[in-house]
TrEMBL record:
<dbReference type="InterPro" id="IPR036318">
    <property type="entry name" value="FAD-bd_PCMH-like_sf"/>
</dbReference>
<dbReference type="GO" id="GO:0071949">
    <property type="term" value="F:FAD binding"/>
</dbReference>
<dbReference type="Pfam" id="PF08031">
    <property type="entry name" value="BBE"/>
</dbReference>
<dbReference type="InterPro" id="IPR016169">
    <property type="entry name" value="FAD-bd_PCMH_sub2"/>
</dbReference>
<dbReference type="InterPro" id="IPR016166">
    <property type="entry name" value="FAD-bd_PCMH"/>
</dbReference>
<protein>
    <submittedName>
        <fullName>FAD-binding domain-containing protein</fullName>
    </submittedName>
</protein>
<feature type="signal peptide">
    <location>
        <begin position="1"/>
        <end position="21"/>
    </location>
</feature>
<comment type="similarity">
    <text>Belongs to the oxygen-dependent FAD-linked oxidoreductase family.</text>
</comment>
<keyword id="KW-0732">Signal</keyword>
<dbReference type="Pfam" id="PF01565">
    <property type="entry name" value="FAD_binding_4"/>
</dbReference>
<keyword id="KW-0560">Oxidoreductase</keyword>
<dbReference type="InterPro" id="IPR050432">
    <property type="entry name" value="FAD-linked_Oxidoreductases_BP"/>
</dbReference>
<dbReference type="GO" id="GO:0016491">
    <property type="term" value="F:oxidoreductase activity"/>
</dbReference>
<dbReference type="InterPro" id="IPR006094">
    <property type="entry name" value="Oxid_FAD_bind_N"/>
</dbReference>
<dbReference type="InterPro" id="IPR012951">
    <property type="entry name" value="BBE"/>
</dbReference>
<feature type="domain" description="FAD-binding PCMH-type">
    <location>
        <begin position="163"/>
        <end position="343"/>
    </location>
</feature>
Length: 638
């Protein structure tokens, strides 16, 4: 039996009782049971049965036949569930109108019954505000991977508005029951299942043509546990948060409790969804490690529809895999309990330099001076985020910000003194803005502005650069030259410096890419192609970018990898790149928990057997999800 703590605490107030996360959120207590399935008429039981619930009967036979089909069924297939089956699903869900059949927002901009010029202007005006995509059941921040089939025409003219790579049905999940029903319905009917939280995924993994989508955005409960004690030894403050909680509200909540939580820099990122499951780098990573290192416990609905707790002693394999193994792969997480830490002051610095005023030689000398010092910066516990961009024939370097948690302005000035001295010696005028904040929340709010919707004509690629690249003068020169060349050949770079070493994250054993543990730089390079471009010319420049341009970064970082949450969809040898030595165990766990491949996402663990056959041949979600012909899962040496 579960006793609610607020109820017993007043009675036993004189004792300081240990609290742990085993108390579920109210939405997690509303669950689907096997008994309920058994009480349903046969035709309905078949739709909603748990994995393996009816061993010998027709539900199992149907499930097996559907699971064996070459492609997941889409609305144009004869085997797509009947209207009546969808109505049954709608009826079983926890409330009315939980099952949605949404159209893209820009449908109002294209010829058809929904066309509406005023509404189109509104959608267009708001389009770059990422709250628009995160608050919508289907829109994503990476429209290229959706197939760009319905975007505001002044931003990208799609010609037509079609559903493209967007899902057909969405369950706006309110309870664990809704998630269980959705997973069982998709599995039993051979449908493609996707999970959308915010839609931030860099490669479109929260979309999927013809899919049933589970939208976790509504699961926003938050709880502060002042004295969390878990069976594996952690004692201290913790936060339990629903899967839909975004950075802006997690940080606000933590601030109100006098603590900080390890989350991302981006305001609207879904911290407890793809972010934390994929690792999660943070402005606090050089102090505490990756976000996944902070996880104490998760609640999760598995591919069979079962609801379990994953922690150090319950479902330990799942617990290990969900901390770094990636979203959309092992089940749907409904909440996560993470460590929290005492709040702290923060100092942030920002500056920008341009070759327009400095000339190219001095400009690059200034950038090199900064790069040469990064080990001292990350070892002092800082995180930095900057852009290095070609601007016409010139270049710019904008540090926005250099973020120093737990440091005063005086400490930051002395940390950056060697850099400033070099600038002075080079006769470069500079005027950094250095601001001291009393606590984390106002610093984060002021220093990390809302980031816009992703590009309609480009793709990212990235690499984790290890400490050894910066440990010698030769290494620093080689690394700097590779960065410089990337920018000189027309690619903007988003750079991050941090050191999420295991020493800092605690001695945790999880599925985070081992390459992160030595990394001191995570660099994202951007490819842009002209508009319009034919699919074949996009594909050839994309392949050249992935296989040749980015290879130069791989060549100087042998054995390292890339961050799966901010990566190239065409990343070669992605198993090694995203997980290194962790991949073999992750694949074993995936094959054990998801026998029927209910969960699939591009370049996710165990995704080798399936591919989206897109309508235009470009990598993305606009097409059917089908088995790769004649393959037995082939995994490269990892
Ligand atoms: C503007 C911007 C800023 C960013 N800032 C950072 C940053 O500071 N640090 C960092 O590390 N990364 C950052 N990222 C990358 C971010 O980590 C990924 O985009 C991540 O996938 C976001 O997770 P989400 O749940 O919000 O997004 P979604 O796109 O909704 O989901 C991402 C993936 O996780 C799956 N998923 C989502 N929720 C669940 C769930 N509850 N259970 C199972 N699977 C789930 C989805 O199916 C999908 O495959 C940023 C991205 C953007 C676009
Ligand atoms: C656009 O933003 C305005 C305010 O910023 C808001 O009132 C309006 O509802 C938004 N429209 C859409 C379509 O999101
Ligand atoms: C609109 O879509 C239809 C059907 O896919 C296609 O035949 C037609 O060419 C498209 N029109 C434009 C303007 O792209
Ligand atoms: C894991 O969760 C279970 C179920 O809630 C709980 O009984 C157990 O104590 C937890 N284990 C740890 C290490 O906290
Ligand atoms: C922050 O600084 C204080 C005082 O300098 C120190 O005691 C504390 O350990 C630091 N916290 C972290 C997380 O490094
Ligand atoms: C590194 O590059 C600088 C020029 O930027 C050069 O002066 C120096 O000799 C180089 N050092 C090594 C070890 O290559
Ligand atoms: C698999 O084979 C079918 C026909 O047998 C073909 O239509 C399809 O394009 C193939 N898919 C892949 C990924 O090669």
């Amino acid at each position: 039996m579960r006793l609610s703590l607020p109820f017993i605490l007043p009675v036993l107030g004189f004792l300081s009782l240990p609290a742990h996360s085993s108390s579920l959120f109210p939405f997690e207590k509303i669950q689907l049971t096997r008994e309920h399935i058994e009480s349903l008429p046969d035709d309905q039981a078949k739709l909603f049965a748990f994995g393996g619930q009816f061993d010998e009967n027709s539900a199992q036979a149907q499930e097996t036949a559907n699971a064996a089909a070459r492609c997941r069924y889409t609305p144009s297939d004869g085997k797509w569930p009947s209207t009546k089956a969808w109505q049954n699903l709608a009826k079983q869900l926890s409330a009315e109108n939980v099952l949605l059949k949404p159209t893209p927002q820009s449908v109002v901009c294209y010829p058809g019954t929904a066309e509406n010029k005023a509404k189109c202007q509104d959608v267009t005006k708001n389009w770059s505000n990422s709250h628009v995509q995160t608050n919508d059941p289907i829109e994503v921040l990476s429209p290229v991977f959706q197939g760009l089939t319905c975007t505001p025409p002044t931003i990208f003219n799609s010609g037509n508005c079609t559903q493209g790579g967007y899902p057909t049905y969405v369950i706006n999940t309110k309870t664990v029951l809704d998630i269980q029903l959705g997973i069982n319905f998709a599995r039993n009917n051979g449908l493609r299942l996707v999970v959308k939280n915010t839609g931030h995924d860099f490669t479109g993994k929260s979309a999927g043509a013809g899919a049933l989508s589970l939208w976790t955005h509504g699961l926003r409960d938050l709880e502060f546990i002042k004295n969390y004690v878990d069976g594996s030894g952690y004692k201290g403050p913790a936060i339990k948060a629903g899967a839909g909680v975004q950075a802006f509200e997690l940080y606000k909540f933590a601030n109100e409790k006098g603590v900080v939580a390890v989350g991302g820099e981006g305001q609207t990122v879904g911290i407890m969804g793809g972010y934390i499951q994929g690792g999660g780098h943070s402005p606090l990573s050089s102090l505490f490690g990756m976000a996944a290192d902070q996880v104490l416990s998760l609640e999760v609905v598995t591919p069979t529809g079962d609801f379990v707790t994953a922690n150090a002693t319950s479902e330990p394999d799942l617990f290990w895999a969900l901390r770094g193994g990636g979203g959309g792969t092992f089940g749907v997480v409904t909440s996560v309990t993470i460590k929290a830490f005492k709040d702290m002051p923060v100092t942030a610095a920002s500056w920008s330099l341009s070759s327009t005023t400095l000339g190219k030689d001095k400009f690059w000398a200034a950038v090199k001076a900064y790069m040469d010092l990064i080990l001292s910066h990350v070892d002092a516990g800082t995180y930095s985020y900057y852009t290095l961009s070609p601007v016409g024939k010139d270049f710019s370097f904008a540090m926005q910000p250099f973020f120093a948690p737990n440091q005063t302005a005086q400490q930051v000035n002395s940390l950056l003194r060697p850099f400033f001295s070099t600038l002075t010696a080079l006769n470069i005028p500079f005027s950094p803005k250095i601001t001291e904040y009393k606590s984390f929340y106002p610093a984060w709010q002021a220093e990390f502005p809302l980031e816009p919707q992703g590009a309609v004509s480009g793709a990212p690629g990235s690499r984790l650069f290890p400490r050894s690249n910066f440990a010698s003068e030769t290494g620093r020169n080689i690394t700097f030259n590779a960065i410089k060349q990337m920018v000189e050949t027309g690619h903007s770079i988003l750079g991050f410096h941090m050191a999420p070493t295991l020493a800092r994250g605690g001695n945790v054993d999880n599925a985070v890419n081992p390459a992160w543990r030595n990394a001191v730089m995570h660099a994202i390079a951007l490819l842009n192609w002209p508009v319009p471009s034919s699919p074949s010319s996009i594909l050839s420049s994309w392949n050249a970018f992935s296989k040749q341009t980015l290879q130069k970064w791989r060549d100087i970082t042998p054995g390292s990898g890339a961050y799966l949450n901010e990566a190239d969809r065409l990343e070669p040898n992605w198993q090694q790149s995203f997980w290194g030595s962790k991949y073999a165990r992750l694949l074993e766990i995936k094959q054990a928990v998801d026998v029927k491949d209910v969960f699939w996402a591009a370049n996710a663990v165990g995704s080798e057997g399936w591919v989206v056959e897109t309508v235009d041949g470009l990598p993305g979600e606009n097409g059917k999800l089908c088995r790769v012909n004649g393959t037995v899962t082939a995994v490269g040496e990892v």
